[in-house]
Amino acid sequence: MTGSADRPQYSDVNAAARPEPAPETPSLSAIYRDNFRVVWSTLARLGVRRAELEDAVQEVFLVVHRRLDDYDPRRPIRPWLLGIAYRVATAERRRARHHREELTDDPRKGAIAGSDPEGEVIARRRAERIHRALDTLDDERRAVFVMYEMQAVSGPEIAEALGIPVNTVYSRLRVARERFRRAVEALRAKGEVS
Amino acid sequence: MTERSDDRAGWRDPALELDFAAEAAFVEPPPGAEDRILAGIMAGVAAGATIGAAGAAGAAQTASAAASGAGAAGVTGAAGGASAAAGGATSAAVGGAWLKGLVLTALIGGGTAAVVGTTLSDQTPQTPAVEVVAPTPRPPVEPARRDEATAPAAIDPTPAVPEETRPSPAPLAVTEAPAAATPPRRVEPSPAPRPAPTAIRTRATPPEATRPPAETQPSVERPPAPAPAKANAGQARRVAAAVAPDAPGQAATGPGTHAPVESTAPVEPTAPVEPVDPHMPDPALKAESVMLESARQRLTAGDAPAALTRLARHRARFPDGRLAEERDVLEIKALIAAGRLDDARRRARAFVTRHPESPYRRALQPVLDAAERP
């Protein structure tokens, strides 16, 4: 941002003002290792079906690879990454919709393993209900909701990731929360696990 | 558990009162996924390097397809001879010297191509389709779009793009043609090939003479095997069938998949994502077929790098899977489409060595033959 790299070397003042050389762009595999889980869960929460999740994750990192040059290593990587994930997820959902694939009925079977089958079933149902409620949101609000509520991303970061004003983030969040809550209640009312 | 630590262990809005832990477990990646996907990514990166951006590859493919008279090229190629078939598959995509000859042949003309194609195929039904093929060069426009798209495959909302562009990878060209002929049907803008059964069928079926019947009676056998007879024609056709992305996919999809090798043809290449039929009790097999189908789709859509990454993932996960042969054949095809002829030949040679009895062997013969010609 400072353009320090372009400044002449003889400027001592400039050098002093520059705490450290611009950080190196991390390698693809380093980015992958650090963010695989976040990307995976984000995509799942954004509605990518289980069967497509691996492909989608892969797609995200291939895009990362392709656009690594555009990334400014001095900036946090997460918003950038989430923005890519969001685009991949929406493209995937659009594709799936096109193919009339069932979006909601997908058991994004997480690995809920353990020695408590009943508990697992209940946990699974709860998780599925959350996802079904998420499915009632449109892509944009869902993204804000997921990132803010579930991925602990800050409002400004979300704004950057989605390329929208911060105010829009919060207004979408408000609406999303309301709709989400209603959806959850409706699902609960349907007499499922509580 | 990076995720857990990264994520908050609860909703920011306490009023939601939901079981966050359960949800977190729900979206937990399965064991092995991380490494498997990384393998795929690296394969994609390697493929991308060869091709330049995936978009570039797409562009090249499309461009050549258009130049050579679209689908006609593919067909003609087949006509040209066994190797031609391979060329057809490779068609536009690649630019190998050995291919050029084929392409030239293809250029002769759509009409000719159609005729040849017909001749090649034993199946009569195909004729009409082929003729229709009118080599209307499809606008190479699509490729550009891909370039721009951040994510060539996934991101671009219309990755599959117009049906016409898609076929470019290879043998599909033939298939494509019919589509062009019957534009009305393909109205659906579906990005992915799969959705509209009609579209798919059109596309998939025509390429190999063998296919049409399959459509009608799903019980038909896999494409590669059938063509023992005529040298060139037979081979060409077979290549189209076997090497064509459909073959493996079908195999994967087909209910008859139990016998890995044999499985190829029965079902429509189309029904991918839900290859879930009762006939396929084996979850591993199902997983395999889903992965291969996904790769096949990408290839059909002209995105060879994406196909390769998926295939690499399949290999990482199922090195000796029941559909390993299908995967290998599909991969060879994808390599050709990606312009990696040398790799394709190497793989083809290795494949033949490894599976001397494979029904795909003959299908690969053209690739091997072509390799002999510098």
What is the overall number of helices of chain A?
8
Give me the secondary-structure category of chain A: mainly alpha
Fraction of residues in helix of chain A: 55-70%
Strand content of chain A: under 5%
Question: Which term fits the overall shape of chain B?
Answer: elongated
Number of domains of chain A: 1
Strand count of chain A: 0
Oligomeric grouping of the chains: heterodimer
Give the ordered list of helices and strands of chain A. Answer: HHHHHHHH
Q: What is the number of independent domains of chain B?
A: 1
Radius of gyration of chain B, whole Å: 20 Å
Describe it for me?
With 194 residues, chain A is an all-alpha fold. Chain A has one domain (22-189). In chain A, 65% of the residues lie in helices and 0% in strands. The N and C termini of chain A lie far apart (50 Å). Chain B has 374 residues and is mostly helical. Helices cover 58% and strands 0% of the residues of chain B. In chain B, α6 (82-90) runs parallel beside α14 (232-243) and α9 crosses α11. The N and C termini of chain B lie far apart (52 Å). Mean pLDDT of chain B is 54; it is low at 1-9 and 50-276. The interface between A and B is large, with 60 and 62 residues.
List the helices and strands and how they pair.
The complex is a heterodimer of chains A (194) and B (374).
Chain A: H1 12-17, H2 28-45, H3 50-67, H4 77-98, H5 117-134, H6 139-150, H7 155-162, H8 166-189
Chain B: H1 2-6, H2 20-26, H3 33-51, H4 54-67, H5 70-80, H6 82-90, H7 97-107, H8 110-120, H9 126-132, H10 141-148, H11 172-181, H12 197-204, H13 211-216, H14 232-243, H15 246-253, H16 283-300, H17 304-317, H18 324-337, H19 341-354, H20 361-372
Helix pairs in contact in B: 3-17, 4-5, 4-10, 5-6, 5-7, 5-8, 5-11, 5-14, 6-7, 6-14, 6-20, 8-9, 9-11, 11-12, 14-20, 15-16, 15-18, 16-17, 16-18, 17-18, 18-19, 19-20
